[in-house]
Design brief:
alpha/beta, four-stranded mixed sheet, 2 domains, 12 strands, single chain, elongated
Length: 436
């Protein structure tokens, strides 16, 4: 890395060049939001900050900001710029800053780079020449890649991970003393500025010295985050929100959909997720409907009214679902039903509807598993959706308990669908909750 920014054009100031780099980064973020809204949404949670090349050779993140060397960004194409933005955001979304534990830092950093880059490679994104990409690590997590690497990997990470006090130098050396020295130098520069010395002296163009940097440039590496657990929760929420928005827009690829589902499922119990979605459809609202004459006052004030929730519950009775699992699921739905004042219509289906159904339960009635459920054949989800349409039910929510291995309807219905899935099979629409 040469002296100075390395991006200046004749007759242009450092500030002008930095503005051009910021415009390039903004354009890359906009393109990500349009083409890949899942990644674009994550990137928008990392404000951009220019960094001194003395400590930031390429890019860096501390799970709070995206730090960049302007000279490095200037050398990248717009497509490569999108890649490095998404790369840092994925480190944060995957909570790499909170998962290292006892592992050696540089080896862990390399494993994280491989894990992130293979995800972006699946998205057909092109990274810079120094991006770590190896097909043998495709589909693996950083924890799975780590033991496959040598104890001192020769690879150099493409960015700087500022999650801890130890410095990640990319070439395998993690010496906190070097970072402390850099931070000390930055503190000295700030002290000189506060004393009126102005910090780094301004040089005229053509004198061969490093030009003065704009005041908003980070001259020293930031301190690592003091609240990694809080950051972890924030990024999990951001990951879930980004995935939901991209899924609704129809721009979440199958590979990313499986990745997000597998990442979020172990973190949240299925009962809590089911309760969340049932609460969302509970219709408590304010009404300006005219009151009775006896209640007429000086003003017409809104009143809180409640209406029962109409829920259809479908049970997959194919051979892969055990009776004990069906009873556990029905018991959980019964417990949640009372909280949201739900009226439930229960049906069962393998490759055809159960002859004894449907079974209807009012708000005050306990849901029980019907005796003698027929099934244990193949799996076809279409009969349930065709029955709902034929009966004009228009439910507030359909909850389908299944292994998701069967034939799905070709079109997504107008009502919301929550799939409680036993196994790892994907679903083409609706919200998928992993049973764990």
């Amino acid at each position: 890395m040469g002296e100075g920014w390395g991006v200046r054009s004749k007759g242009r100031s450092v500030a002008d060049d930095l503005t051009a780099i910021e415009t390039k980064l903004a354009a890359a973020r906009t393109r990500l939001i349009l083409d890949k809204p899942f990644l674009g949404s994550l990137v928008m949670h990392l404000p951009l900050k220019a960094a001194d090349p003395k400590w930031c050779e390429t890019t860096a993140t501390d799970a709070r900001y995206f730090y960049y060397n302007p000279a490095y960004i200037a050398r990248l194409t717009l497509e490569q710029t999108q890649f490095v933005l998404a790369h840092e955001a994925m480190h944060c979304a995957l909570s790499h800053f909170a998962r290292r534990n006892h592992r050696q830092k540089h080896r862990w950093d390399v494993a994280c780079d491989y894990a992130v880059n293979m995800i972006l490679d699946d998205e057909r994104m092109r990274g810079p020449d120094d991006a770590l990409i190896d097909a043998k690590y495709r589909g693996l997590t950083a924890e799975e890649i780590y033991p496959l690497l040598p104890e001192s990997p020769p690879e150099k990470t493409q960015d700087l991970h500022l999650f801890e006090n130890e410095a990640s130098k990319g070439g395998g050396e993690a010496e906190s003393m070097e970072q402390d020295a850099g931070q000390g130098q930055g503190d000295q520069d700030k002290d000189r500025q506060s004393e009126g010395g102005g910090g780094r002296p301004q040089q005229q163009d053509g004198q061969g010295s490093e030009p003065q940097q704009p005041s908003d440039v980070e001259e020293a590496p930031p301190q690592p985050p003091m609240d990694p657990d809080k950051l972890d929760e924030q990024w999990k929420s951001r990951l879930a929100a980004a995935a939901q928005a991209a899924r609704q827009a129809g721009k979440l690829s199958q590979s990313l959909m499986r990745f997000v589902d597998n990442l979020l499922a172990p973190q949240l119990p299925w009962r809590a997720l089911l309760a969340r979605y049932m609460m969302q459809v509970a219709r408590d609202d304010y009404s300006f409907q005219r009151t009775s004459r006896r209640d007429t006052g000086a003003a017409l004030m809104p009143r809180l009214y409640s209406q029962s929730v109409n829920v259809v519950v479908a049970l997959d009775t194919s051979g892969s679902i055990k009776d004990e699992e069906l009873r556990e699921f029905v018991s959980e739905v019964d417990a949640l039903k009372g909280q949201v004042r739900a009226e439930v219509v229960l049906h069962a289906c393998d490759d055809k509807l159960c002859a004894g159904g449907p079974w209807r339960f009012a708000q005050w009635e306990a849901i029980t598993l019907p005796e003698g459920l027929s099934g244990k054949g193949g799996t076809d989800f279409r009969p349930v959706f065709e029955w709902i349409e034929r009966e004009h039910l228009n439910p507030d929510l359909l909850i389908y308990f299944t292994d998701a291995e069967g034939r799905f309807p070709e079109r997504e219905p107008q009502f919301p669908v929550v799939w409680l899935v036993k196994g790892k099979a994907p679903v083409p629409f609706g919200v998928r909750i992993q049973l764990n």
